[in-house]
Fold this sequence. Notes:
- This protein is an alpha+beta fold.
- The protein has one domain.
- It has 2 helices and 5 strands.
- It has a 5-stranded antiparallel beta sheet.
- The model has no long low-confidence stretch (mean pLDDT 86).
Amino acid sequence: xxxxxxxxxxxxxxxxxxxxxxxxxxxxxxxxxxxxxxxxxxxxxxxxxxxxxxxxxxxxxxxxxxxxxxxxxxxxxxxxxxxxxxxxxxxxxxxxxxxxxxxxxxxxxxxxxxx
Length: 115
């Protein structure tokens, strides 16, 4: 009968491929709400949304032709079904959080003592 035919498999076909990450409607509403409040106060003027393998990014700009002031990044879902969130300012990581609400607290106005 002879030897069975050999089959060649490409290792790349078995590597775990990251799926694109997207913002859901609720997340997008929260991000656009935050953006709108800062536009009304004159702080922010433009935004961009990028999706790719393993992350989705909501970038915020003061002026259209400048670098992003902030990037709110949603990572891939973990085994618990939740996505990690990171808020960056340039190369500085401002916060890493388990939920979008926790991540957006970095933008909450700080309380000041008024005398």
